[in-house]
Amino acid sequence: MAFRAVHAEWGTVFAHLPDLGCGRSWEAVWRARPPAPLTCDECGHAMHAKTSGAGLRFFAHAPGAPTCALALESVAHHLLKLELASAARDAGAHAELEVRGPGGAWRADVLATDPGGTWATALEAQLAPITDTDITARTERMRSDGVTSIWFSDRPRPAWLGAVPSVRLDRPDGEERLVVAEGLVKFDGRSWRAVPASLVQFLAWTFARRIVTHAPRAPLSYPQRSLATVWTAPQYITAEATELEEEQRRRRVHEARAAALQREQEAKRERIRARNAVTRAKALTEATAVEQAARTLPPTRLWQAARSFRRGVDKALAKLADAYSITATVGFSTGDPRYAGGVPLVDGHGVPAAVYDPDPGRVRGEAFLLLAGLLLIFPSKADQRRFENAANIKKKHRPVDGYRTEFLEIPVAGAGAGAGRAWGARSCSCAVPRLVVKIENAEYPAEPCEQPSAAPAFLRARCRSCGGRYEGAWRRTGSTPA
Questions:
Q1: Could you give the angle at the alpha carbon of 90 between the alpha carbons of 85 and 92, nearest 5°?
Q2: Taking residues 56-75, what's their average pLDDT?
Q3: Which among 140, 176, 315, 444 has most CB atoms closer than 10 A?
Q4: Which residues contact 463 (CB under 8 A, 6 or more apart)?
């Protein structure tokens, strides 16, 4: 099927034109006797004028025709070409079907030209699948001969849409003419949105250069896909550029303000660090003096309990030696409130190097000043997290740069990972608690008491009934693991 043929005497004739484009009637070639001398301008084979049952006029190859591009085109393709040609004429252009380029390098489905001869635009009906590379190459071949092109499809999702100047067409229910469904947009101040328009309106705007192709930089918020190339009016391109420049200006202003604020905050932190360095040095000096004074006295029960029963102290000392090259021992000043219930680990000169497992509930005053500058080591990751979470809640006792913390992984006998995390997570509220205390890797029975012993300062008791941490005074009731 074709809508163009070559008459031996009249030249090119067009089936879709009332006068065939040469001042002749359709009857002059249709059922004429003898048959009209028509040939295909693509392959040169003889052609006949025909009319479909619906009244569509076209030219068909005579039997025995060679393989021809026109003969292989579908009816849908031919019909879309007809509609493109009709819309181009309604938009004020001169339109011809199946026009060959110089030397046969290309063939336009419809060639729309200005009656004054100032421009030529190929209107291409593309219904078959095609790659972006191929459609771009065909566009460039036409462009090299001074012919722009616009590609059209009425398929739901043409994969190549936007790779070249193109639009997707649609025919709404009840409408006779095609409309532009995708590819024509306008800028609303923040993003691109679809513009409804008929095919005739679109072509009229295109021929008059009221719309041009554009690669959008702002987001496309209309329902269809984002396209690499769209059609829009020049004023919307200017509006997009203006908005993007304004957005960049706002971003630069915001970044400048954020940078100034960050510098101001960093300067404030530096002033705080300078003040803290003084107070921490003073706190460490005082703690060292307390340690030196404690060494002149006999070892206390707290020191003995910490060395013998505090779970993980030996591993904390090993951690200091392996990771920090600090040879330390348990400080004689164990039990001093400035360690917040933790065990001081001091170097060979009696200077506190770290504190093992401090209680976050006791971090205040002198304890905060000292612990903020020392390394804090905890028996497990859960204990470390519990301390840091408590510090985050109590912002008054949180250093500007945070605490320096480490943790050990000490297995708990007879308890899974879940039980280890639950240890000490909440306080016991039982009327008659059933207590056990962890010593090394075993649990020993205990009971509440009125007078605390040395052990509760370092060891934690747990209620076996509710699993909560016992906060009161307690004592061991047996030497055999529970």
A1: 100
A2: 76
A3: 444
A4: 428, 430, 433, 434, 435, 469, 470
Q: What is the pLDDT of residues 368-398, one digit of tens each?
A: 999 999 999 999 999 999 999 988 877 777 8
Q: Is 286 exposed, middle or buried (0-12, 13-18, 19+ CB in 10 A)?
A: middle
Return the closest-CA partner of residue 365 out of 344, 407, 337: 337
Average pLDDT of the chain? 87
- Of 163, 142, 166, 137, nearest to 154 (Cα)? 166
Q: How far is CA 41 from CA 7, 23, 231, in A?
A: 10, 20, 34
Alpha-carbon distances of 381 from 235, 341, 408, rounded to whole Å: 61, 18, 7
Residue 456: which pLDDT band, with cuts at 50, 70 and 90? low
Following CA atoms 352, 353, 355, 361 in sequence, which dihedral angle do they give, to the nearest 10 degrees?
70
| Contact indicator for 141, 167 with CB cutoff of 8 Å | no
HSE of 236, CA atoms in CB hemisphere, 13 A: 24
Measured in residues, the chain has a length of 482
Interacting residues of 330 by C-beta distance below 8 A, sequence separation 6+: 303, 306, 307, 313, 317, 343, 344, 345, 346
Q: Read off the DSSP letter of residue 176.
A: S
Cis amide prior to 129 (ω within 30 degrees): no
> What does R_g of the chain's alpha carbons equal in angstroms?
44
Q: What is the mean pLDDT of residues 118-140?
A: 94
Number of CB atoms found within 10 A of residue 456's CB: 20
Compare 392 and 353 and report the one with higher pLDDT. Answer: 353
Q: Is the pLDDT of residue 250 over 60?
A: yes
Q: Give exposure, 82-102, as e/b (b: 16+ Cβ within 10 Å).
A: bbbbbbbbbbebebbbbbebe
Q: What share of the chain is helix, strand, coil (3-state, %, to 5)?
A: 35, 25, 40
- CB atoms < 10 A from the CB of 225, how many? 12
Instruction: Supply φ then ψ for residue 113, to 5 degrees.
Output: -130, 155
- Tell the burial category of 35 from Cβ atoms under 10 Å away from its Cβ (0-12, 13-18, 19+): middle
Q: Report whether pLDDT(96) > 60.
A: yes
Residue 291 CB neighbours (<10 A): 20
Sheet holding 435-439, edge to edge: 469-470, 461-463, 435-439, 442-448, 474-476
Q: Which amino acid is at 366?
A: E
Quote the pLDDT of residue 457. 62
Plot region of 174 (φ>0 → left; ψ -120 to 50 → alpha; else → beta): left
17 phi/psi in degrees, rounded to 5: -95, 140
